[in-house]
Amino acid sequence: MTDPVELAVFQNVFHSIAEEMGAALRRTAFSPNIKERRDYSSAVFDGSGNVIAMGDDMPVHLGSMPMSVRAALDKLTLEAGDVAILNDPYEGGTHLPDITLVMPAGAFYVANRAHHADLGGVYPGSMGLCTEIWQEGVRIPPLKLVAKGVLNRELLALLLNNVRTPREREGDLTAQLGACRIGAERMTEVVAKYGMARVAANVTAMLDHSEALIRAELERLPAGEFTAEDYLDDDGIAQRPVLIRVTLAPSPARLCVDFTGSAPQVAGSLNAVAAITYSAVFYVLRCLLPEEAAPTAGLMRPVKIVLPEASVVNARPPAAVAGGNVETSQRIVDVLLRAFAQMLPDRIPAASSGTMNNLTIGGVDPRTGELFAYYETIAGGSGGRPMGDGVSGVHTHMTNSLNTPVEALEYAYPLRVRRYAFRKDSGRGGLHRGGDGLVREVELLAPAQVTILSDRRRFAPYGLQGGSEGATGRNVLIENGVERELPGKCNINAAKGSVVRIETPGGGGWGGSPDPQTDRLVGFL
């Protein structure tokens, strides 16, 4: 029988390795998106590809990374000194800017994923409104970037020749390689210190413990079927709402998560591949467990996910997918939490902003004459909670990144931040108010292409238990002092001196109570 104290020690050992990998990546990366915003994730896997530890990183990366590792193990024979690279959403990836590296670490594997600020394609930043995946950028199947310690320079050259910012891409990939090597070294040290038999026994116990914890939660849930739905505003091509529906059917032995009824895959880039939907389910279930619980593969053992083929939650080629990773993932979480709120009304918060408010700006930097690609997600308000108000200006749910500090942004790009503030009263009332969103204004100091992928501009973040909806977001272009409202999803060419303003949604309120702004009973009048 495994000693629970020893189990906790190993759990923290593996977690610290994933965290050290992330710290090394952050310190050595070239791009502000990784160095400043921390748009990366690291994890440790057993010999069968089961995740056993994750860094405190991006849920949308972490929950889907096991599928990338699985794809690499299925397609390649990885030996000591090898490193696999991939980003193909239809072979374990999420969207093309997210590049995953997988490296053997003795009897284990380590992996990291980082969002590269440009990976080619039609639009700078590789996050534009496309209708086919080939328009979105370079698509990399599982390949060996490093074989027996030797870098595949031909593969690297092919990749760098198809992106707008090759120096930055090479620097970020090198940082990812270094982080993997550190993880592999630490895992080798752990096995040398404790012995393989002892390490393997504790890995098995960790997986079993995660399963036991989630089964205990399932036993507390009421029997029945609990259905919820919500909408994406549109796919950026057709101005029609996109339905996401889920039915939860819990039992002590199994939880069935059925997305039947969700919309077919769409023309625009809001399609989520299966790995994204899996990661959203993983994230929500992890939120039901105690904070100290290890997020291992064992958590998903009693879970069955039903995904309709060629749907917006299980897209098939050649569907474009850039926004599925960042926008549809958030709506999947909203729908899951809305369904769980029917079973656990005193534990589930109201909807948060429900969008990553993706802003990409690319062009030629007049200071250097070289191409640049700026990418950022902009925070919003979190939903009111049973135990208190929501938080203002925070990245929620499937994102866990930071902002780009104004000084770093203006140093790296021909851009100027004109305004950065809380969006007052965008979080709405209830017993516990939702948090406020943000307002961020960016001035272009050179002509550029601007891409916005955002949502909750039409369908507001929902309140729960009588709380009000949060405010919807807005996108505005200011040219020569004239404001023009932009769609939630768009590609535009903007002149030097133009200002892009993003107003992000606030969180919904939780619980009915007098609203201090209107002195009305929110949710009841």
Please tag this protein with its features.
single chain, 525 residues, alpha+beta, seven-stranded antiparallel beta sheet, disordered C terminus
How would you characterize this protein structure?
Helix content is 29%, strand content 23%. It has ten helices and 20 strands. Helix 6 packs across helix 7. A hairpin with a 4-residue loop joins strand 12 (358-365) and strand 13. The termini are far apart. The protein is an alpha+beta fold and 525 residues long.
Largest beta sheet, briefly? 7 strands, antiparallel
**Rg on CA atoms, Å:** 22 Å
Report the strand count: 20
Average pLDDT metric: 95
Number of helices: 10
Low-confidence stretches: 518-525
Please write the string of helix (H) and strand (E) elements. Answer: HHEEHHEEEEEHHHEEEHEHEEHEEEEEEE
Shape: globular
**Structural class, from secondary structure content?**
alpha+beta
Percent helix among the residues?
Answer: 25-40%
Biggest sheet, spatial arrangement of strands: 2-1-5-4-3-6-7
Structural domain tally: 2
Q: What's the short version?
A:
The protein has 525 residues and is an alpha+beta fold. The protein contains 10 helices and 20 strands. The protein folds into 2 domains: 4-209, no CATH class; 349-525, no CATH class.
Write the topology of this structure.
Elements: H1 4-28, H2 32-35, E1 40-45, E2 51-54, H3 59-62, H4 65-75, E3 83-86, E4 98-105, E5 108-115, E6 143-147, E7 150-151, H5 153-160, H6 166-194, H7 196-220, E8 226-232, E9 242-250, E10 255-258, H8 274-288, E11 303-306, H9 322-343, E12 358-365, E13 370-377, H10 406-412, E14 415-423, E15 437-444, E16 448-453, E17 474-479, E18 482-486, E19 489-494, E20 499-503
Parallel strand pairs: 10-11
Antiparallel strand pairs: 1-2, 1-5, 3-4, 3-6, 4-5, 6-7, 8-9, 9-10, 12-13, 12-16, 14-15, 15-20, 16-19, 17-18, 17-20
